[in-house]
Amino acid sequence: MEFKRLAIVSAIAVSLAATTAAEAGVSYHMTDSGLDTPWSNNSVGLGVWTDGSPVDQGYTSGLPVTWLANIDTNDTNYRVSSANAITAGADSAYTLSSIANNWRKSNVVSGGDASWGHTLDFGLIDMSVAGNLNIEIKADSTLSSDFVPGFTIWQGWGDNGAGDKHSAWNFLNSDPKPFFGTTVVAPLFLDGVSYLGENSTTVSGGTATLTLNNLAAGQYIVFIGGNSDTPTTNDTYLANISVSAVPVPAAVWLMGSAMLGLVGVRRKQKSV
Q1: How many domains is the chain built from?
Q2: 158 lies in a domain?
Q3: Other CB atoms within 10 A of residue 18 CB
Q4: Is residue 174 part of a domain?
């Protein structure tokens, strides 16, 4: 009985410790003056990161990354937003955005012609916990955005030196695409990543959400773009990212209870 009470108290304590939003786990890339990230290939090591550069965590690919979410706690929402970047030290004009809606032309699931990745925004996720990963990308209503988001997530951060935003991107490695006289054999030439999933919306100011179950702790990269028919719109967004622990099967709890019961019986017999 005492064991059950302790277990309940512990569970409640863990639940209360989980917060609804965590800002400290997200680091934002900006220029030395605190404005939007240096936007060119191989620029991750340039400028300043508000809370640590992904280079220090092993990022060696060439794509220009805007943010890094370090997910180290289950059941906690990690908010990626312009407001949080400003709170972390970015300039008041700092924004997270995707230009020209280049996610919309086609996607990995439906196939079709690949589109140019030069206007996508890129984010990194470093998970030190395993579980069900949930990603929500939506318009940043505080900035009056009519963003129509679409995003794709890949496992891995890419090989050393790989990645070129000036190339085709929304296809699988098994389906190379011709692009300006060359053949792109991996999305954005980003070798070393594996496709996991994608989602989009057709609603102006809407939300795109995806849950990936039973993901191992590891590194993941997110491509974020627009999905509207206005090709030149510069749209702002925010992201909510969380990992929920995979529930322990009931059979495991029953087995644990049975084992505890046997231990109790043996102790009682020994005492007698």
Answers
A1: 1
A2: yes
A3: 13
A4: yes
Output the CA torsion sign for 253, 258, 263, 268. positive
Token pair for 41: 């290939």
Structural domain of residue 109, as residue ranges? Answer: 22-271
Residue 15 lies in a domain: no
Tens-level pLDDT at each residue, the chain (272 residues): 444 444 433 443 433 344 445 666 999 999 999 999 878 999 999 999 999 999 999 999 999 999 999 999 999 999 999 999 999 999 999 999 988 788 876 778 777 778 889 889 999 999 999 999 999 999 998 987 888 999 999 999 999 999 999 999 988 888 899 888 899 999 999 999 999 999 999 888 999 999 999 999 999 999 999 887 776 666 899 999 999 998 766 544 455 555 556 555 555 555 54
CATH for 135: 2.60.120.380
Residue 209 CA, chain-centre distance (Å), reads 11
